[in-house]
C-alpha cells in the first residue's frame, strides 16, 4: 500500500498520490462541501474561512486561510468537475501572478478505498522552489493531505 502514498517533483509538476481508506463518494463529499473542507484544508496551524463555494465548471471557491501571522486570500476557479472522479481548477490569490497554478485531482475507486492523485502544475520549477523557500509549500501540501486523511478516519472510525 505504501507505493500509493507518494510525492514527486518532475520539472514544474508536483504530484501527490495517496490511498485513502474511505469510499470515493465520501472523499468527494469532504473535498467539495464547505462544511467539511474547513475541517482539513491547509497546512498544520492554518484555518479556513469560505466566502463562497460553488463546485461547478466555471464557478469559484473564494476563501481565506489565516496562518503564519496573516490572512491568505485564495480563489479556485473550477475548470472541470466530473463527480466523483475529477476536479480540475486554477488556483489564484496573493500578490504575484507567477504563483498561480493549475490542479487536477483524480478520485479513483479501489476496493472500497480511494486512490487520490493530485497534480499541481506551476509556471516553472523555479516558482516551486521559490514558494517552497518562502512558505514551505511542499511540506504544506503534504500536511494538507495528512489532515484530509485524519479527517476521513474520524468520519469513518477507521484508524
Q: What fraction of residues sit in β-strands?
A: 35-45%
CATH architecture: 2-Layer Sandwich
Largest sheet: 8 strands, antiparallel
One letter per element, helices H and strands E, the order comes to EEHHEEEEEEHH
The proportion of residues forming helix, as a percent range, comes to 25-40%
Mean pLDDT: 93
CATH class: Alpha Beta
* Unreliable runs: none
What does this structure look like?
- With 159 residues, the chain is α+β, with helices and mostly antiparallel strands.
- The chain has one domain: START domain (Alpha-D-Glucose-1,6-Bisphosphate, Chain A, domain 4, 2-Layer Sandwich).
- The chain contains four helices and eight strands; from the N terminus they run E-E-H-H-E-E-E-E-E-E-H-H.
- The chain has helices spanning 24-32, 34-37, 125-135, 137-156; strands spanning 6-10, 13-20, 49-53, 60-67, 70-82, 86-92, 101-110, 113-121.
- The chain has an eight-stranded antiparallel beta sheet with strand order 1-2-8-7-6-5-4-3, with helices on one face.
- Helix 3 crosses helix 4 (137-156).
- It starts with 5 loop residues before the first strand and ends with a helix.
- The model has no long low-confidence stretch (mean pLDDT 93).
